[in-house]
Amino acid sequence: MTETIDQTPHTARQADPFPVKGMDAVVFAVGNAKQAAHYYATAFGMQLVAYSGPETGSRETASYVLVSGGARFVFTSVIKATTDHGRFLAQHVAEHGDGVVDLAIEVPDARAAYAYALEHGATGLEEPREVKDEHGTVVLAAIATYGQTKHTLVERTGYEGPYLPGYTAAKPIVAPPAKRFFQAIDHCVGNVELGKMDEWVGFYNNVMGFTNMKEFVGDDIATEYSALMSKVVADGTRKVKFPLNEPAIAKKKSQIDEYLEFYGGPGVQHIALATNDIVASVQAMRAAGVEFLDTPDSYYDTLGEWVGETRVPIETLRELKILADRDEDGYLLQIFTKPVQDRPTVFFEMIERHGSLGFGKGNFKALFEAIEREQERRGNL
Asked: In this protein, which residues make up the domain named VOC (predicted)?
């Protein structure tokens, strides 16, 4: 296995050619946005803050905006497709099931970011435009990335509305939990076809000025049956991190192969959510019906020997099936949900970091074996 770490300081790089302020939103196209919003409010503890639909003048789509700390999800479904945009969303759900259509990034200058991206090889989808309402002005532009996913570049400096012009403030669906389940989006993982990972790594290097943060290849990211390769790109501040996976040749179908088959091509595989208390989060989410991957007790028998002391006792990790990993910077705790829709595609990760900048390298084998057990149950291994 090879692991490389970019030594760029974890502060904004001077003269950053493509500065970003962070993730603005993860936008999902879903079959029923009303029901999706309820699920994420009740099971993920998120709060509905904004809405767009027929009541606000949107005759084609309905969208619900939910937040948890700095994390923002938008769920959009088609009411009646009458434009190319509506037809695209309807077709996307038909072909891919519920999935991510947009990893929106907040930038200080959307026009400059869009111009830089196009100059360095990006495909433009939406030229910069201003949208306004009584809360201020937002500048939006969009570029294409892997599959049918896009990056909307959002400049919202000074905008004080609940989300974007065209949205109205909305009341919470359920009472807020006593404690947030998560505070931010830690990273968003994309799955691409065999042989395409380096191409998309190069895209982020060239088009956005992202640097290579980590790389995982070789036997340590494989089990007896399946394997994959992964590289992580990030902006200079490490606020936006995009791991990119591709399948590797192995005896049986890997989790990446399964995703590509059932999603119908490349797309966002999972979203990692940063929490300050993974124990409380997992307990609350399990009680609300979220299913997490199981981990055999044998994993925990020797965990303390190599991971060392953690905030959460080993027995509590064992009870809740939470994984732990340590690197040169500290340690992390993590757990993965099962797919959150009928297709074995999009899932989530809960992650609690204590210094570690990694992605759970020491857990890859245990994680992949857990995923393989689920693949076998589905008949897809």
From this structure: 22-156, 184-338
Average pLDDT over residues 230-235: 92
- 151-168: b (≥16 Cβ within 10 Å) or e: bbbbbbeebebbbbbebe
Boundary residue ending a domain (106, 136, 169) = 169
349 is in an annotated binding site: yes
What kind and span of H or E run contains 137?
strand 136-144
CATH of the domain at 247: 3.10.180.10
In a domain? residue 2: no
96 has binding-site annotation: no
**pLDDT, mean of residues 306-335:** 94
DSSP one-letter code for 177:
P
Confidence band for 3, pLDDT divided at 50, 70 and 90:
very low
- For residues 219 and 89, the model is more confident at 89
Does an H or E element contain 168, and which?
A: strand 168-169
* Cα–Cα distance, 331 to 284 (Å, whole number): 23
Distance separating alpha carbons of residues 259 and 379, to the nearest angstrom: 13
Helix (H) or strand (E) holding 115, with range, is helix 110-119
Tell me, yes or no, whether 194 and 165 share the same domain.
no
Residue-level pLDDT at 230: 85
**Would you give the end-to-end CA distance of the chain in angstroms?**
24
Angle between helix 255-263 and 364-378 (nearest 10): 50
Q: Which of 37, 43, 62, 44 is nearest to 52 (CA)?
A: 62
Question: To the nearest whole number, what is the mean pLDDT of the chain?
Answer: 90
Q: What is the pTM of this model?
A: 0.91
Mean pLDDT on 287-302 = 91
Q: How far is CA 303 from CA 30, 95, 105, 235, 324, in A?
A: 39, 42, 37, 32, 8
Beta strands in 4-98 (DSSP E): 22-29, 47-52, 61-68, 71-78
How many domains does the chain fold into?
Answer: 2
Q: Are 41 and 174 in contact (CB under 8 A)?
A: yes
- 3-state SS of the chain: helix, strand, coil percent to 5? 30, 35, 40
- Is the separation of the CB atoms in 337 and 288 below 8 Å? no
User: Which residue segment(s) compose the domain that 129 sits in?
Assistant: 22-169
CB 21, CB 156: distance < 8 Å = no
270 annotated binding-site participant? yes
Tokens of 249: 């040749």
